[in-house]
């Protein structure tokens, strides 16, 4: 049975999906806010939330785990030094999804902003 095993497939192969989630997460960590399709934003939300929870405890082991998930030194450094300290006292819910009213021009896809909660 696959109860509760929902995953956003995004219409791509698993390797592409992993790379897409990884790259969008790196952009979110470095910029603090990104605009993407609503489905992609919903797909990266749990990934980023788990990374921030991991980064709240700054140890070498946690930095290595974060590096294996992101594969980007600058993003790991930003995650541990700028993003995670803001959320030390917060128990969860580090990101916010803001849906955009108008659709994308080319294909009519619903868009959304994903950003860290202030």
Shape: globular
User: What is the top-level CATH class?
Assistant: Alpha Beta
Supply the number of helical segments: 4
- What percent strand? 5-15%
> What is the number of strand segments?
3
Rg, nearest Å: 15 Å
**Mean pLDDT, as a whole number?**
96
CATH names the topology as: 50s Ribosomal Protein L17, Chain: A
- Order of strands, widest sheet: 1-3-2
**Overall tally of structural domains:** 1
Order of helices and strands: HEHHHEE
CATH-defined superfamily: Ribosomal protein L17
Distance between the termini: 39 Å
Share of helix, binned: 40-55%
Structural class: alpha+beta
Task: Report the CATH architecture.
Answer: Alpha-Beta Complex
Low-confidence stretches: none
Largest sheet: 3 strands, antiparallel
